[in-house]
Amino acid sequence: MAFVLAATGSAVGLGNIWKFPYITGENGGGAFVLVYLLCIAVVGIPIMMAEVMIGRRGGRSPINSMRILAERDRLSSRWKWLAGVGVLASFLILSFYSVIGGWAVSYVGTAASGQLSGQSAEVIGAIFSGLLGDPGKLLIWHSLFMALTMLVVARGLRGGLERAVTILMPALFVLLLLLVGYAMTTGHFGQAASFLFRPDFSSLTTEAVLVALGHAFFTLSLGMGVMMAYGSYLNKNVSIAKTSLLVSLMDTGVALLAGLAIFPIVFANGLEPGAGPGLIFQTLPLAFGQMPLGSLFGTLFFVLLVFAAWTSAISLLEPLVEWLEEQKGMNRLVSTLGAGSLCWLLGIASILSLNEWSGFAPLGMFAAFEGKTVFDLLDYLTANILLPLGGLLVAVFVGWFMARQALENELSLRGPWFGLWYGVLRYVTPVAVAIVFIYNLV
Ligand code: PHE
Ligand code: NA
């Protein structure tokens, strides 16, 4: 139970409610969603099982679990750097995740003050642009979000968080259902459902396939060692397959509900599905502005969104802090302050790329990065490169280097299930990731 709660707390976050809808909108809907679901099933779930298994067998922080497993099977100790890739990725992700978490914090106040009620799409859009255009405000909210994250990591309050997840996740689910219910009254629910679920492959680009694959890793918190860290809490008698499946299903369910809540509002108000990262902040406030008790529900929703983002952010900071403690001998407070403030500092670059530096594309000389701001680059580098790379290495390590007997003992799957998982992990996962990678990089 502790594992399921911690893993769900990490998985369900901004990736589901903020990122999934906007990348779905940018990448044309149905075909993208289908590829994403396929990536969850064929790449995400098998890798989650592999990561959880490494964590449970190693019983330490990710880098040390990898080192222990490699030593036990007389493999190169260089495998531990696989978890190193993950620690770097989680540091980079947290820097901009906290900025978006800050947006959510600021909307708690916006909703509570009643500013949203009865407003038009133009006014709601202007409120959002006002926030993005003000680096000072963004900095305050980013700092607050990062401080909240550091507070929990420094004190190791995991037990309290797990208890909170049991209440707040179901509440988030209920509010999303309420929003979907509202969305059904807009008269554009059918259009949204067909946008999300009727695939039109003619509009699917290869870049979209890479984004879908990267997002499968991002949303399930994979490729970074987070699930390894949490797997070390899992008892020997618990089924890794069942718990991984449960966490993945909950994560996917929240993302699809968010999509079903948002797109009817997009179509009903003539907004642009490809509006980008601001999509949920330009749509959901409209719904809260129009429904009865909207200020109350809106406030509650953004509180829950902040909470979901917070539990994910904690899991992003944890691996780096643990590594500093184990490797550099720092105490928890010092390592949290050190890692957290570096992350906070890097977050400022993402803040500026939303306003002052919005025209600055540091790697713009390469065609692939044309027009990408610092924020875009961090997102691209982590979700589309580092996470799939981390996942690929996990699949190769577990599928090709660990002893098969050990895997059978860990998973204790009956019937054809072990063979299916093993085959997928050995062949399908690495090949799928490699193809998408090579295609996009070359
Ligand atoms: N899975 C989280 C989300 O969807 C983000 C995250 C990624 C958290 C990687 C931890 C590690 O919001
Ligand atoms: Na997620």
UniProtKB/TrEMBL annotation:
Spans through the membrane: 29-50, 81-100, 138-157, 164-189, 209-233, 245-267, 296-321, 333-354, 385-403, 415-439
PROSITE patterns: NA_NEUROTRAN_SYMP_1, NA_NEUROTRAN_SYMP_3
SUPFAM superfamilies attached to this UniProt entry: SNF-like
Top-level taxon in the UniProt lineage: Bacteria
Membrane topology: Multi-pass membrane protein
Cellular localisation: Membrane
Chief localization: membrane
Stored Pfam families: SNF
Keywords associated with the record: Membrane, Symport, Transmembrane, Transmembrane helix, Transport
Gene Ontology MF term list: symporter activity
Protein name in the entry: Transporter
